[in-house]
Design goal:
Blueprint (H helix, E strand, L loop, with lengths): L1 H15 L12 H4 L15 E6 L4 E6 L3 E2 L8 E6 L3 E3 L2 E4 L4 E10 L11 E10 L5 E3 L2 E6 L5 E3 L2 E3 L8 E2 L4 E6 L3 E6 L1
Length: 188
C-alpha cells in the first residue's frame, strides 16, 4: 500500500504545482484560453431605410393570447405574431415574427335566452414591432379567422351560430388587411 500512496502523493503535487498547460512566453489571457483574441472593434452602425406597405396588404397572424366574447372586455390588450414576412423586391420589409398589438373595442357574450344571439368581438390593431426593434402605428381589420365556427363580417368576429361564443385560442390564425399604408423603418 505504501508505494501506491507515494504515487498518489507525487501526482497530487504535480497537478498542484502547475502541471497544466503553460502559456507561451508573453502570451495573453486570451491566448491561454485556446488562442482566441477578443474583437474590440466597434460594431458597424446599423443602417435603416424607409418602407411603405400599401393599404390592402394581407397579414397572417397567430394569436399570442386567446380572445373570447365570454371573457374579454372592452379595453383588453392582445397580441398577434406575423406568420410570414412581407417582401418588396429583394428585401424583407416586414419580417415574420413581428408582433402586432391591439385592443378589444367590444365584446358581447353569446345569448342564453329565447333570442340566443351569437357572441361578437370587435378588435382594433394599433401597433406593430419588428424583431429588429422598428415600430409603427398600424390600421387594419380582421377579414378571416382560422377557426371554422367563427365568422367575420365588416371586421366584427361572430360566433357563427345562435348561442355560440367567439373562442379564439392561442395560435389561432387571424387574417388582417391593412386599411391604410404602413410606413416602417427597415434594417439594411
Amino acid at each position: 500500500m505504501r508505494p501506491l500512496s507515494a504515487i498518489l502523493m507525487v501526482s497530487a503535487l504535480a497537478i498542484g504545482c502547475g502541471g497544466g498547460p503553460q502559456a507561451p512566453e508573453g502570451g495573453t489571457p486570451a491566448a491561454q484560453a485556446g488562442g482566441l483574441v477578443p474583437d474590440n472593434k466597434p460594431a458597424p452602425p446599423v443602417r435603416w431605410s424607409d418602407a411603405t406597405i400599401p393599404a390592402g396588404t394581407t397579414l397572417d397572424l397567430a394569436l399570442v393570447e386567446p380572445l373570447s366574447s365570454e371573457t374579454n372586455r372592452t379595453g383588453d390588450r392582445f397580441r398577434g405574431r406575423m406568420v410570414d414576412g412581407i417582401v418588396q423586391g429583394s428585401r424583407v420589409v416586414l419580417p415574420g415574427g413581428s408582433i402586432v398589438e391591439g385592443k378589444v373595442l367590444g365584446a358581447i357574450a353569446a345569448g342564453q335566452g329565447a333570442g340566443r344571439q351569437g357572441g361578437t368581438l370587435i378588435v382594433q390593431f394599433e401597433r406593430i414591432t419588428t424583431p429588429f426593434g422598428a415600430a409603427a402605428d398600424i390600421a387594419a381589420r380582421v377579414v378571416k379567422t382560422g377557426v371554422a365556427t367563427q365568422v367575420v363580417r365588416d371586421g366584427v368576429i361572430g360566433g357563427g351560430a345562435p348561442g355560440r361564443s367567439v373562442l379564439l385560442p392561442p395560435e389561432a390564425s387571424l387574417t388582417v388587411v391593412l386599411e391604410k399604408p404602413l410606413q416602417i423603418k427597415v434594417r439594411e
